[in-house]
Sequence to fold (158 residues):
Amino acid sequence: MESQRKIFVEKVGVRTEKMGYSPLAGRIIGALLLAEPPYMTFDSLCEYLNASKSSISTNLQFLMHDGSGMVEYFTLPGDRKRYFKISIDNWVKHIKEIPKEFQQSKDLLEEILSYRKSNMLDNEFSTNIEELLSFYEFMLEKLPTLIEEWEERRKKNN
Fold:
């Protein structure tokens, strides 16, 4: 069972690395997703992931404060330790911000396309940017509806 847990932790590490996170940040997420109980102390993360305190600290700070707040900590009365856990609510909140991020990317690409056209830069590449803008527009049209449908489903299930 422990070897399978380690395999899952590595899979999460690889997956999150592809999303732009450090491999260790991904392993921390994986370890916390598979922890039982669903939290770990700083020292237990260092030991389990066989990583230095400074590396764990740096990556925990990133995961808590990078905008998504995917990881959070809590304390217990009479205990000086911090316990780290996955924040599902912050994770969902981050996902709900995707339309805003798409809009910001779309706005920037529109500015770039305008610049390219006004300076007569490679038309073929500009056409590719227009195609990408079309995708952003489609996603911006559909994402709010998908999020709303998910919220309705969530209400029904709770």
